[in-house]
Amino acid sequence: MGLSIGIVGLPNVGKSTLFTALTGTAVDASNYPFCTVDPNVGVVPVPDDRLERVAAIARPAKVTPAVVEFVDIAGLVAGASEGEGLGNRFLSHIRETDAVCEVVRFFEDPDVAHVTGAVDPVADVETIRAELVLADLGTVERVLPKLEKEARADKGLAPKLELVERVRDRLAAGDRAMRLRMTPDERALVADLHLLTMKPLLFVANVDEEHAGSEPPAIDGEPTIPICAKIEAELAELEPGERAEYLVSMGLTESGLDSLVRAAYELLGLQSYFTTLSDEVRAWTIPKGATAREAAGVIHTDFEEGFIKAEVVHYDDYVVLGGDHEARAAGKLRVEGKEHVIEDGDVVRFHFRT
Ligand code: GDP
Does ligand 1 lie within 6 Å of residue 113's CB atom? Predict the structure, then answer.
């Protein structure tokens, strides 16, 4: 299950400022065994009002949110695909992430130099796209000769060869690999190439203070979140109680980071379900469409392997009726088998064999 998002962008666009602000809201990664403990990784809670509402009913000792990981990936400059800057090391760091969040500078500030001399979001996006596309083209061209040879001996490889050739043509035309329409099966065929431009992509437009919270400028047809990294950095230093006041004073309803984290979760195709115990109410992350058995496996492999049944209450029923017992009494607690598809916000209790 993908959770890790690499922050990339040219130098001086505000990546570190954004990352520092994100880590200001970070949680202790050791509570999440699947997360990486590393100074370049911030484990950030996914804002979710529903978790608070469920907790207000279940009144547990502890409330544990879902999280995503942000990885600060420094060092992307023009020429990275040919080894400039951190070059290949930088590219291998992106390869390990599930999605890419590209920070684009929109803010004007005479005190902050721009790498090419002028603020030009379109040109910056183009520079990074070119580097990533070139890196992928290099990968594909390294793989193709071997694949051609193998396909001559094994006719079963013909579809893969044909697909990789199409990917190569796309990349050679300067497009991201994701622009090639592929079925899920086709995508699985090229997954082992770990192409950078196949990863889901999200842009952060780092805007001036006065443009924070305004309609995002569309970038390259991909989702774009407008953020003023400077405001976010200031917010991160405030006590939680003061943050809301500061946001209101800036005319904002939620922090840019909250919208970013939510958008990232969405981009990765993730959703949450909740478990309620007296000692802990917790949001668990599953891919959309996950079955009850798969959802159980996110808690523990024993839950998945010994799965017997899941008791499921829809979030709305849980909140309106006021808890598990009330939902059961109202006939709204359903007992489901392993193939049942869990919905976003379901409150679930698993029964399993040990
Ligand atoms: P990075 O090289 O992409 O990591 O960029 P940094 O986060 O180090 O930011 C470069 C400079 O731009 C720093 O001096 C930041 O304080 C400044 N900066 C970052 N975001 C903003 C912003 O939204 N507005 C303004 N005015 N300055 C910013």
Answer: no
